[in-house]
Each structure stands twice: as C-alpha cells, then as structure tokens.
C-alpha cells in the first residue's frame, strides 16, 4: 500500500482538480495497493485532497491512513477495506491527525494529533470502527508521533522530542492494552500469560541444567539476563513482570530439588487502611499452579495497596464555576472521599503550629483565625528564608499530613494546598501518590494551582506573592478570611488493591522440617515502568522500564547460586545440616519491605527450644555506621523477645557492582559475625567493610526488628541507582560470584553448627524517623562502603546536578554543609533538610589533604 499523485501526470484530473494541483501538488495524492511485484495496481481513494500514510490491518483486510481537508489545514484518520469499500473517518477532531497504525489485535488504531495545540503533537488511540471517542496516550509537551507497535503488541515505539535538548529520538515503552481497551470501552483480550509462564519455567530449567557446580559469573549472568528482560518490565510488585520473575525463581528452586515452603491454604489477612471504604480486599485463594504440591507452594501471596487513582466522580466548583481537574486542582492522596457542600475559605499562611523549643520560638499560623466548618488554604512547604536551624525545627511539623491534622483539630472541613509563586517546585499541584501510609483523613484535602489562589487573594485586595515573600522571612501574619470565595467539592479516590508473591524454597536437613531455620534472601521486585515516586530517572527517561540489574537481579542471582551450591553438597552427602535453610525471593521490598514483613508476621513457629541455645546480649549498642541509602528505615527498637526458630537472616541486596570493597552490614546484630566473616573470607579474599548498623532499608531489617541476627551484603551506591540505566552490561559478574561464594560459605557454616548466633540489639540512630521529606536536591551519591571516615565520602555526583555544577567530585568527603559539620550520613540528610531551594549556600569537602569550600545552589526534588 502506498500514496501517489500519479493521476496528475496521466491526464486524469478534472479542470477543478488541475487548478488545485497547481497550488497544492499534494491535493492529487491517493492511496493505491498492488502486489509486491508491482502487478494488479488498484486505486483505493478517489476524493479530492491528500490521502497518505497507509498501513494494513494485521489481518491484511483493511487499511488505515490520514486524509487532509481540501484546504490542507486539517487531517483525520480513515479506514477502508483494501478494495476501497466502506471508507470511514475514525476521528472528527478538526486538527492535524496523522500517522495511524493498527494494534496487532486489529481492534484499535493509534495515531498522532495536535488537537492540544499547533506544535504539540500527542498520541491518541481510537477503536477501529470509529464508534468511540479517542483516548489520549501521551501527555508530554512537544512532539510525540509516528507510533508503531511491536508484532506482539506488548511495546510501542515512536518518535519524541521529550529529550534534554528537545531533539527527536526514538522511544520504546511497554503497552498497557487493558487500560486502553477500558478507555475505549472494548472487551479485554484473553490473557496470554500461560505461555510466558511456561517459557519462564523452561528457561529456568535450561539454565539450571547447564550451570556450573561452583559459584560462576556466567550463571549469575544468565539469571540477571532473564530477570532484566523487557517483557518483565522492571518487575514491579503485583504486575505480570513480577509473576514471570517469581515463576522463573520458583522453577529454578524446583529444579534444584528444594521443597516448596509456603502453605497452599492461602492467607486470610485482609489489608487495612482503605481510603474510600468502598473496596474490600478478598481473601487470597490458593494458587492453582504447577509450582509445588496440593499442600505446599513455592509462592506465598500477600495483599497490598499498589497505589491510588482518581475515581470517576471528582469535581470542584468555585463560586459555582467548575475548575479543571489536574490543571487547576487535584485531590491529595489522604483526602476523605465524598461531597463537601459549598462553604467558605480562609487563608492560614504556611498552616504550621510548632511549639517553642529551646532557642526556637513558637510558630502558630492559626492565631485568632476562625476555621470552624471552613476550608483552610495553606502554602505547601516551609518558610524559605529562615535559618537552617529554624527550618529543621519547623520541618518536624511541616508535612502535609501534619498540616491536615492541625486544620482538622481546629474544626476545618478541608485543607487546600498551594505551592505559591515564590516556591521553585517542578509541579504546582501535589502529585497523586501515597505518602507511605494507607490511612485516609476525615477532612477533605486538595491542591490548587498558583493562579487559582492568586485570584482568590485578589478578592480581598491581597497579593499572594507578596504574602509568601513576607512569610518566608519567618515572621507570622494574621490569617485572612476570603468571604467572596466559596467552594464545593466531590472527591473520589480509589485505592488500587493488588497481590504480590514471595518465592520460598526449603533445603531440608532431614526427612521432616527442622525446628530451626536459616534464611537466605534477596528481593526480586523493582520499580517497574516509570518508577513512581522512588525513581531517580532524568526527565528524558521518565516512563521507561527500570530493569534493576543491580537492584536487585544481582542479589537474586547470588541467592540462587548459594541455593545451588548447598543443594549439590547435600546431594553429595558432604553437608551435615543442623538447621533447614529457607531460600527466599522477597517481593514488595521497594514498596516498604512488604513481602518479607508479611512472611515474618505469618511465620509458623514449631515450639522449639531455640531461645535456650541462643546467647542473648541485650546491651544496646548505638548504630553509627551509614545505612544503604539516605532514607530513614523504621524508627523502631527491636523487640527483646527473640523470634523463635529463625537462627539468622542473610540478605543480598545490590551485589552486582563490586569495585573496591564489599560492605557487610548488620555486623552489630551478633557477636559471631566478625569471626565468621574472617574465617570464610580467608578462602575468598574479598576486601570487606564491616558496618555494625542493623537499621537498613532492606529486607534484613524486617528480621532484625524481630530479634534475629542479620548480615546483609552490598557492593555500593552508584549513579544508575533507581534509574532505567541500571542495566546488565554494567555489572561486575566476577564480583557478584565471589560475593555469593562468601555469603554461601557463611550460610554453610551457620546451617551446620548446632545452636544459633547470639543476638545484640541496637538503639535506633539519633533523629531517625522524625524527619519530614527533604525538598532540596544536591545530586550527590554517597559511598556507603566508606568505612571509618568522618564525613560523607562520595562515590559520584549526578550529571548536571547542583554538586557537579559547584565542582564537587567523586571521592570528595563532605565535612560541612551550610555551616553544619558533617560526620555521618545522618548529619548529612539532616543538613539537607535545612537547605532552601534556589538559595546558594556553602559546601566544604576534603579532597586528598586539602579542604575546599564551594558554593552550591540546591534544586527542588518536587
């Protein structure tokens, strides 16, 4: 199929067509079809004006193309049979719509249109009968066009200018067929996951059959290769990609001869914290699967809240006039749902109430302000031009949840958040995403754009920018009633309920399960496509799959290597186990250690006397070594009651980028670790860094907080962390295999020794768990394997970030920031919290034997 204006050169045009052709040669363009040898040429269209860009439907029975109006100002999408009959317009947008392409199902067509503005082309989809309204696919300003599906319909490629330099590049993304069908009112296709699941099993068994008997870089590479495949889409918990990844691991465990560990009776716990009270989570039913037996399965399913989404019934009326959702306003995740009748609005500055604390004076935005039964309008963040110490004091009371609670306690019906024209946020409206808590609130909560709030303040002759500038000095102002502004809202927020699954396999010491177990685990999930709020992707990478090669395909591969090593020794009769070993691939780690927490909470004890054999050392030691990422883990001191039956937990999280040292974290949780590591590393020879801190943002913390000794392996942070750039070709496979060998030897030692390691509890790090979310971004990448160094050693700095612009380099040690001395990662994150976005400050680094002072200007994280 092709387009040609050949009729203009063969004398077939009418006089009117000839005249039009003289000014517009494209007006004679028509669609033709012919055989690939050039025979049986047939003209399909016969309408004056341009017809071009034809593509066949998957079954070869239809064509889609674009047809311009006679004046060439507009184009619509058309289809017809290949003989030209039943020609029909699928779109009536009155814009420039072009580049159509059939989905492989033939049920709908994707195309580009500039219906949102002359230079802004977006992708849309329309059903192949043209009976539905088209649905929007892309939402990025600039050019998105020339879309083409992969033959299986699982991915889309297209051209876009969503790049840093705004030049066109080719992009690829996973295609959500079900979501598009829902938008178009089409029936879903029959699921095709069974064949993919079978493929996962086949690949796992082939990999196991060809694997080495020792710890092998090639074996690690084969595991990583499968877990990072495009069709797994980043292994986000609850997705088909997670199911394929867990199916692969379960099949590999099965091929090794491990025993399925999870009960097939199905858990009965129902997730709580529903925002709307409209959705009940069903009990998870036993999984019909070939992975295991009728009583036991390799899969342990668990319920979780995957996120939130706007329902269909959201509206905001301002003095009776409807506001535009996602442009002028948006609900906040913890808002109550339902209708709040029309009522007044009052303005309360930053909406803060903070008590006097030492040299810091009291701060109260509600002095002499009546908010009973009204909406309260507040600024989103904190006063910007106060001292870092004052910001840190106010930050404890500055989260949106806290502001909502304060407003609620004073009788308000709702909280309205505005970023303000003086702020330097990237998005004026608060993103619709969970904040780590599943609970809702009893008052409404929405955000509005700056212009809406500006207009509201104008009704009382006030200037929003001037007010924000004054409040940013740290001074208090009286609140302002807005009697001429009345709003009515209906808020509809749905929690997205999903199910994830852990993979659990047991290596038996004897014919029956032992009364004590060693756990060797690694998390299998990652961020999926887009990455959500945890993504550190560059702007041009937004929406791409986060493949998670290091985080944590590497850890899962190492765990499987240990499982293979120990099962082969057991079969050879050279492994005299005193405890069973449970090998675990946890899911939900990136969402908050959900899978490992579910397992620990549902661990079936066997009434052993393990506690009697374990040495209890309850002398609490401080946790001083840095954690894996600059994010506070749970602020909970572990129970002094030891978790029965679990002798220890070995964890592998990000072990694929070994450079100089391997970090072994959690060594303070038991007195045995130093000696165990020294003995087993003697035959491996890795340069290791022992870190005592057991409060880690990884699954090991789940067990430490239940009184289990932990040891977690980690090869360090890097600039590709939580970005689509964390790919298999960047891994050090030899280093990963050596890490697996060291942890495997430690696992063997523990599992073949009577009794259990001692447990040492630790106090939580100072200030842990009290921090508000940081708003400032510096672009530094701390080296969490820095050892005994005072300050924060950097393994790198982000390209084009504030630190790079200031002259900060990899291997610099940050010793001071904004006048605050930095001795560890906790000091550093605390200091960042006190920074003002866009305001230059000083950073001091140690480079070799020299101290360098530099000026750095933080950017906004939001």
Present the secondary structure layout.
Elements: E1 2-4, H1 15-23, E2 30-33, E3 42-43, E4 51-56, E5 62-68, E6 75-81, E7 88-89, E8 97-102, E9 108-113, E10 122-127, E11 135-136, E12 144-149, E13 155-160, E14 169-174, H2 177-184, H3 193-209, H4 217-227, H5 240-256, E15 259-260, E16 262-263, E17 296-297, E18 299-310, E19 315-318, E20 321-322, E21 329-331, E22 338-347, E23 353-354, E24 363-364, E25 375-379, H6 388-395, H7 400-409, E26 414-418, E27 444-448, H8 450-458, H9 464-471, E28 480-491, E29 493-507, E30 517-523, E31 528-529, E32 545-546, H10 549-571, E33 580-586, H11 594-601, H12 610-613, E34 614-622, E35 646-652, E36 662-665, H13 673-681, E37 688-691, H14 700-704, E38 710-714, H15 733-751, E39 756-763, E40 776-777, E41 780-782, E42 792-797, H16 802-806, E43 813-817, E44 820-821, H17 825-833, E45 841-847, E46 850-856, E47 859-860
Parallel strand pairs: 22-25, 25-26, 26-27, 30-33, 30-35, 34-39, 35-38, 36-37
Antiparallel strand pairs: 1-2, 2-3, 4-5, 5-6, 6-7, 8-9, 9-10, 10-11, 12-13, 13-14, 15-29, 16-17, 18-29, 19-20, 19-28, 21-27, 22-28, 23-24, 29-33, 31-32, 36-38, 40-47, 41-42, 42-43, 43-44, 43-45, 45-46
Helix pairs in contact: 3-4, 3-5, 4-10, 4-15, 5-10, 10-15, 13-15
User: What low-confidence regions span 5 or more consecutive residues with pLDDT below 50?
Assistant: 266-289, 618-642, 766-773
Question: Level of helix content?
Answer: 10-25%
If helices are DSSP runs of H or I spanning 4 or more residues, what is the number of helices? 17
**Residues in β-strands, percent:** 25-35%
**Could you say which overall geometry the principal axes of the C-alpha atoms support?**
globular
Q: How many beta-strand runs?
A: 47
